[in-house]
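Quick note —
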Amino acid sequence: MTTETDPTVVIPVFHEKTDTKRLSKPLPQKPLSLITIDDSSRNHFLRLVNAWLVDLNIPVKPWSAVLFNIFITMCEKAMNNSIEQKNKTIWIQTLTNNSPTESKFLHNVFHGKQLTNEEFSIDFPIGGTIRIYGLNDEAISGKLMDLVQAIVYLTYSLYLESYVMRDSQVQLIISPPPPPPTTTTTTTNSFQKEKATTKLNLNFDQHPSITKRSSGLFNWLKKLNPNNTITRPPSPSIEGETKKRSNPLTIKRGLSLNNISKWYQQPPPPPQNDLDCIQPNDPHRFFKLKQKIQNAVISTSPECHFPYPALLNRLEVEEDDLILEQKKINSMHNEYDCPTPSTSRPAQQRRRSSLISSFSSLKRASITTTDIQLPQSITAYSSIRVPSLLADSKKGLEHLNLDTTSLSSFKHHQSITLGFTVYPIGCPDRPCLGPIMSKIDYFRYHAPQNTTTIFPNIDQTLGHMIRHWSQSSQSPCQAHMDGQVQFIPGLLVETPLPLSNSRPELVTETPKSSDSSLLTLTSSFYVPKRQCGKFHGCNQPLLDHIYSFSHGIGRVTVYSSMDQTCSPADKDKVKTWLSCSTCDKVTTAVVLNERTDQFSFAKYLELIFYSSKLSSPRPFCQHTKNSNKDIIIRCFHYNGITFKLVYEDAKYYELRVPRIQMAPTETIVPGTQFEAPRMSIATLKGWKHKSTTQDVDLFFESVRAHLDLLNHYTKAEARRKLRGLQQDAAATKKCQAESKSLDGEIKTLSKRLDTDHQFLLQTLADTNINELNDFRRHFAIQSESIIQYLTEWQSTKCGEVSDTIEWDSPDYIRMKSIHCFPGSSVLVREDEPTSIIAYTLSSNDYMQAILHDDMGTEFSDSGSIPSLSSTEGSTTEPVVQPVDKKQLPQQSPDIIDGYYSSIERKYVSPSTGASTETASFRTMVIEVVKSSVVEAQIHNVKRLEDLKVRLSPWTKKQQEEGDLKRQKLTERTLKPLVAIQELEHQETKEVKVASFFYENNTVKDPTKNNISPHIKHKFVHEGIEFTCIVYYAKEFETLRKQCDINQLIVQSLSRCQSWTASGGKSKSHFYKTQDDRLVIKEMMNAWNVAEKDAFLKFAPKYFEHMKRSSTEPSVLAKIFGFFTIRMKNTLDKKAPLLNLDVMVMEHLFYNQNIIKRFDFKGIQDRQVEEFRKQQKDTTLWDGDWINEYRTRLSVHEQSKAVLEFAISNDTEFLSKCNIMDYSLLVGIDQDKYEMTVGIVG
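Predicted structure written out below.
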C-alpha cells in the first residue's frame, strides 16, 4: 500500500552536515536498467515494520530507522552483486555496546548465529551478517530475533518482486532524496532537479491521473492532505476499484547507500490503533471493522487491495438499515395516533421523536437511545439485532481473522487457498480434476522434482511451474490422476458433508479460505479431513485442457496452445509478454529474468488477484491506459507451448443459515407484561387508524350522505305538494309546517350524528390497542342501532323512499364468518384456520394463563368496553343448579350478541400421560342484552343466575370446589348514542360473568400429578365453537421471545391461505401466512406412527437443542408452535367443521427471489424427471445438483465453514433423537447471490 493511502506513514528525512569537498562534483547517475527498490516498496516496508514494532512492544524509535537501513543495504548489495557468492547464508549478531543506530548489514561477513528457516526456500543472492548494537534488554532481544527473521523473508520477497514488476512491464517510481544544502553544488543540483522535473512532466502528459511527487517532508505531507481535511478512503472493492497509487514513471535516479542511510534516520510515527478496541455493542461496529481491514498489513507486496469479506459487507448493510429504520420509526411513531378534537394534545405537549445525528463523510451518526423499538419484522431477520450478546459464531465472524497488524497475523497470511479445477476445452461442467481446495504456503518449494501431478499443491517457482506444464502438455490427462491422488499433503477436497451424526475431525493447521478477503485466509475454523473421487481424468492431452485457479471474487484461467514460431536460440528459455484481450496487441517478448523465475507461483497468483501495481503496466494500446486486470493477458512460452493467464471476476454465493436465529437467554426480559403490545405497535396503530378512517369516519359519512338525500327528497316533495294546494290556504299552511318540522328533525339528527361521531372517536382513542375487538363489537352494535333507527324514521317520515344507507361496512360486520372475540385485536376468520391460533395467542385469557405460570398469582379480569357505565354485582355466588355438561349454551331472544370462552389446564400423570382433574381454568361469558327498563328491574337477578347456569357446561367440575373457585359478576349499561336517545323505554346492557380457579401452588400436595404444559382454549360465537390447544405453551413462548418473533407470529398468523409445497412426497396439507413469513404444516399419520405423539415426545429435546443453538449456528428450520385447532357448529351433532393438528414453522425463503430450489436426502441418484425440470417452481433433487449445478455455484469458504459446523450439530442431534425423515432444503437467490440452507422434517 502506498503512502498516499496512509497518512500515518511518514518517510523520515534527515540532513546531515556533509563535507563540501566530497560533494564538489555531482554524483554519477546509475544506469536506468538497474532495478532498485521503488518508493512503494520502501513505504510498505516501513508500514509493516512499524506495525510489528508496536505489536511486539518494541520502541519504534530508533528501531524503525535501524531496520529500514538494514533492509535498504541488503537490497542494494543484492542488486549490485555481479559475482556468484558461495556462502549465501544470513547471520545475526547481537551486541550490547554502542548505539542501536550503528546497527548494519555486513556483506560477506559471517558472525554470530545463522538464521535458519527450514519452512521457506529463500535463495538470497548474497550472504552476510546483520549486526545489531545496543541490545541491553533481554525481552527486546528475543522479540527482535523473531522480527529480524520476518524482515529477511520480507526483504527477499520484495527483492524478487522488483524483477517480476520489470518483466511485467511495470514502471517503478523512485524519488531521490533531497540534495544536501551546499553552495558548491547548487547549480548542478538545480540543473538536475530541473531536468528531472521536465522528465516528470512528460510522463504526466502520458498519465494525466498521476500526481506529481515533490521531495521533502513538508511537501510530502502537504501532498497527502492538500486541503487540511480528513477524507475517508474509498472501499477497495474489486468492482469499480479506486486505485490508490500513482501510475509508475521511469526511474529517475538510483540511490546510494550513504544517501539512503541519511534519508531514513528518523522513524515514522506508529500506526493508528484506534480501531483495535471496537465494542460488540457499538452501533457502527461493522463499519469500523471494515476500516480496520482497509488498513490491514498482511502481505509482503505493496498496493495489494483485498476486497472486504462478503460477510462484513452484508453486516454493514444490515447495520445501516437498522440505523435508518430506527430514525424512521422515531420520526413517524405518532403518525397513526387517532385524533379526537376534544382530547388532542397541543403541539407543544406532544412527545417529540428522538433524532439521530446527520450522516457525514467524516463520522457516522450514533443511534439515539429511545423507548421506540424497531418492529420485529425488521429485527427478527437481522443478524445483528443483539450485537452485544448474539454469538459471533452465528454470524460467522469467528471464521474471519480480524487481526490485521500483528507479526503473527502477517506470518499466518503467507499462504493462499486456491480452488483448482482442470476441465477439457468446452466442458467446464465436466471437470477431469476438482474442484479441489489446496492451501499453498509461499516460498516453500518442497515438492519432489519428478512429480507427475498437474498441480502439486505445494508451492513451486514461477519458472518451474511453466516448464512443468509444458513438459506434461502432450501426455494424457488420465496419466496424471494417480499422482494427483497420492499427493495428499495440504489437499482439501470439496465434498458436501453427509447428513449424519458424525462430526468431522478437526484439523489443527487451518488453511486460508477462498473468501473475498485474505483476512479470512487463515481463520480459526476447522477443516474436515475428507477425500472423494474428484480425479476423473480423460484420454485427451493436457494441452486440450484449461486450468482454473479461483480465490476471493476472482478467477485466473490458464489456456495453453502450440506455438512453434520461436527461434532455436530460445529453446529451454521461458519468455514472457503481455497481450490486450480487446485488440490483441502485444508487448515485446523478453526472456524471463532469473530472479523472476525464482518467484513464488502462489505469490504471483496473489499479485494477479489483488495487486493494482501489477495490473498497471506501461500502456501499450488504448485499452491499457486505464488499469484493468481484465484487459491484461499474461503470456508465457516454453519450448513451443504458450500459456495465457487471464483474470476474470467470479461470482460467489454466500451460504445463509435460516434468517431467524435464537438469541441468548440474557437478552430475554424475564416474565410477561400483560399490558405489553401483543403485536407490532405500528401494526396495532395502523389497525386503530383504519378503524378511525375506514370504519367510523366512513360510516358517518355514508349516514350524512343519506340524510342529505332524505333532506332533498322532503324539500322536493313539499314543493310538489304546495303547487297542488295553491287554492287551499289551510292545507298549504299545514304542508309548510310539516316540511319545516321534517327539516328541523333532519338538522337535529345531523347535529346528533356529529356528536356521536366524536364520541365514538373518543371511545376508540381510549381503547387499549390490545383489545381493538372490544371497540369493534361496540361499533358494530352502535352502527346497527343507528341504521335501524334511521330506517324506522325513514319508513315513518319518508315511506315513499326505498333507498337505504349505502355503506361499505367492515368485513367483521358484513360477514358472519368473521368474529370479534373480546380481549384481543385479532379477528377470527372461519376460512383461515391460523387466525384461531393468532386470537388465542393474543387473548387476555391466554396471557393471564401465561402470567400465572410466570408469577404464580391470580389475576382479575380487565375492563371491557370503556364506553360502558359499569355497576359491579356482589362477588358472592348464588346457588346454581348443576347442569349436564352436554348441555350447550342456548341464546335467549333478548340477547343481541354473546361470547363464551374457557381456558384450562389439566393434571397429567407422569407414568401414563393421561389427563386427570383440572389444575386451573378461566371462563367468561359476555352477553349484550336489550330489554325494557321494567323487565330489567324485575328479571335482573334471574337473568344473572341464568348466565351462570349457561356458564356451567365448562365449569361443572369446579362447582364442587367452592373454596377454590372465584366468580365475578359485572353488569354494564351501554350508553345510548345521542341520535337515538328518545328510545328511553329500552336499555342495552353488557353482562359479564367471569370465573377463575387456580390450584394453590403454595401447598405441596404429594398426591397431585404434574401440571400439563398444554393450554386448552375454547370460545363460542354465533353458534360456532372454536378450540385451540397450545402444546408446550410456556416453552414455545420463551422460544419465540428468544427468536424475537413473539409479536410478529401473532400478526402473521392472523391471515393465511392454502399453499401447495413441491418437492417432497408428504401428503400433508400446508398453509402459508399471507405475509409469506410462516409455513403451517398439517400433521399426518405415517407408517402407523402418529406424528403428533412423536412430536410431543420429541419437543423437550428440541427445546434443549434450541437453547444450545443460541450460541452456535443452526440450520434447523425453526418450529414456533404446535397446535390443535377445531371448529364445529354447536347445533350440529355431526363431524366438526375443522379438526387439524398443525405445526407452525418459519418460511426459509421469505423475502427472497428464489430461482432454483433443491431438496437433498443424501441419495446421489435421486433426480427429477426431465419434463418436470422445465416447470416453474419445480424442486430439484440430489442428482440434479451433482450433475448440473455443483461446479457452477461457487461459495465463500467462510460461509461454508459455518454451514458445515451447523449441519454437524443439527444432524448429530436428530440422530440422537432417532429422527431420519428430514431433508436439506437449498434455495438460490440470484439477486443477492445467496443460497439459503435449512433442515426441515
